[in-house]
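hey so i finally got around to running both of the ones u sent me last week. sorry it took forever, my laptop kept dying halfway thru and i had to restart like 3 times lol. anyway pasting them below in the order u listed, first the sequence line then the C-alpha cell line for each. didnt double check formatting much so if smth looks off just lmk and ill redo it

first one:
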Amino acid sequence: MHPETDPERLRERAVAALTTARARTAALTDAVSDHDLTAQHSPLMSPLVWDLAHIGNMEELWLLRHVAGHESMHPEIDPLYDAFEHPRAERPKLPLLGPREARRYAAEVRGRVFDLLERTPLEGTSLLDRGYVFGMIAQHEQQHDETMLITHQLRRGAPVLTAPDPQPPTAPPPPASEVLVAAGPFTMGTSAEPWSLDNERPAHVRDLPAFHIDTVPVTNGAYRAFMADGGYREPRWWAPEGWKQIRSHSIEAPLFWHREGGQWLRRRFGVIEPVPDGEPVLHVSWYEADAYARWAGRRLPTEAEWEKAARHDPATGRSRRYPWGDADPTPAHANLGQRHLRPAPAGGYPAGASPLGVRQLIGDVWEWTASDFLPYPGFRAFPYREYSEVFFGPEHKVLRGGSFAVDPVACRGTFRNWDLPVRRQIFSGFRTARDA
C-alpha cells in the first residue's frame, strides 16, 4: 500500500507530479524547431505538437470539466485531440493548434488546474479520492512524454537531447543467471495503491507452479548470438505471424541497428554508435523476443510470473509495491524518468533487486511477457472504458516493468502496459523463463 494518505501530503504529491511532467513536456517540445514540432516523423506517431495540445485537452476534460464543472474552453478543438477520433497517420492533415497556440492552451489549462487543486477536497467521489484524478492526469502526461521520446528516437537529424550515461554496475553480477521462484500463491494487482489505474485492480490471489526466471534482462550480446546462429533465417523459432512479419519487412536485427564494416551499429537519438554487448536489448517486437526465447530453449514469462518474481516476498508472504520494498523509487533503485537516454548495463541497480535477487525488473526496458492483455477477475472500467477495456483481448501483449523513458509516477510493480506484438519503436526488451 502506498504510505501516503494525508490529504495535504497527497496534494503536495499531485503538484509535484504535475510539475515534473510539465517540465519534461517542455524539454521535449522546446528541443526542436517549430517545423519539427509540426512534422510527422513516422506514420506510427503523431506530430509532437498534437501530443502537446492533447495533453492540455485531456487535462481540461477531466479536471476542469468533470471535476470543476466548467464549460469547454475551446469546443471546436475537442474532436481534433480525441485519440480515438483520428488515427495517428491522419493527424498531420487536421487543423491543429500551432506550436505557440498549443503551448498557450496547455499553460492556461495548467494555471486553472493548480487553482482548482488548492481548493478541492481529495475525497467525496471516486475521482477525487486521495487525489486519484490528478494522479491519473500526471500519469497521462508522462505516458505522452514517453511517446514523444519515441518520436524523438524516430526523428532524423542532428541530436537535440542529451543526458549522462548510466553508471556501470557497482556490485558484482548476480551469482546465477536465473533464480527459482517456488510454487504457491501470491497477491497480484492492487486494491490499495491510490493512483493505480483500472487494469491494475483489484488485488487477487494467483497460485503458480514453480518456475525459473532470468536474473537480468537479455543483453545485446546474447541477442547477437541468436542473430549469428541464423535466428532470423530459421522459421522454426518463430510464431507464424512473426515469421510473416520479418520476411515481409526484411527484418534481420532490432530496430535502429545496421551493419557496417563487419560491426553492428545503432542509431540512438541521432547518435550512431557501436551496439554495446552488455546492455539490455532494446527495440525488439514480441515476436522477436518470443523467437529468441524458443531458440534459447526457454520461453517468455507470463505476466503473473513476472509480477510474482518482482513483488512476492517469500519471507513474509506479502506482495511489495516494488521489488525492493514499499518505498518510492530513487536513482539507486532503478533507471527511470529519462535521467539517461539508454538502458543501464545488465546487472546494475543491486539496491533495486527483488527478495530473490532478480535485478532491473523496474526501469531500463519494458519487458514483453507471454500474456495477452486481459482484465483481472472483478475488473471495473474506471473512469472511462477507453483507457483499458477496449484493448482487452489477444491482439495486445502485456509489457511490464517500465523503461528508462518512464517516470516513476507511471511505473509500479503492478503497472501494466500493452501493445501490438509487431511493435518495435517502443522501448521494449525482455527476459526469459522456464518451467521448474
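and the second one:
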Amino acid sequence: MAATGGKQTLSDDVRARLRADILSGRLLPGTRLKFPVLSARYDVSVSVLREALVRLAEQGLVRSEPHQGFMVTPLSRGTLTELTEARAELEVLVLRRSVTEGDLAWESALVAAHHTLERTPYTAADDDSRVDDDWSAAHAAFHEALLSGCGNRRLLQLALGLRDEAELYRRWSQPLGDEPGRDLGAEHRALLDAALARDPQAAAAALCDHIRHTAQLLLAVADRLDSAQESSALAS
C-alpha cells in the first residue's frame, strides 16, 4: 500500500510539472511527447509518465494517437476559428440578456467577482510566463458572473460550456501570444462598467472584442508554428 501511495504521489507531481510546462508554452502545441526524453527530463519511469499523460489527456491538454503515443494538443486554426465564432455569437447573446434581466443580486455578485479578479496576481509567483491558477479561477468566475443574469438556463450552460472548451487557448495566450502590453484589467473593467450601466450594446461590443483579441493573438502563433514546421520539414 505504501508503494502504491508513493507512486500515486509521484504521478501527481509529474502531471503537475507537465501541465505547467504545457500551459507555459515550454512544451509547444503539437510537440511529440517521447517517453525517453520525458523520462530523462522529469527523472521518472515510463509507467509513471504514462499515468500522468493519460490524466492530462482527460483534461484536454495532451492527445493520445494510436501507434504514435502522446502529443501536446495542437493549436488548430480551424478549431480556434470555429470556437471563436461560436463564442462571439452565443456569449454575446447571453450577455445581452444578462445585462437586461439581471437583478440586484446579480450586480452584487458581479462586482464581488471583479474585485477578486482585480486583486489576484495574473502570473504564477514562480514563473511569470505561466498564468496563475488562482487568476484563471477568478477569471472564469468573473465571466460566469457576467453571464449569470441570463434567465434562460439552457443558453447560459451552452455559453459556459464553450468558455470551458476555450480554456487551453486562453492559457496559451499569455506565454505564446507575444503582446506583453495588453491591458486585460482595462478590458475587464470595460465589461463591468457596461454591465452595471445596463448597456447591452456596449457590453456586447466589449465582450466580442475581448474574445476576438485573444483568438487573433493565437492565430498568429499558429501561423508561426506552421511556418516553423514547414521549414523543419524542408531542412530534413
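quick thing i noticed on the 2nd:
Residues 7 and 22 are 22 Å apart (CA to CA).
anyway thats it, ttyl
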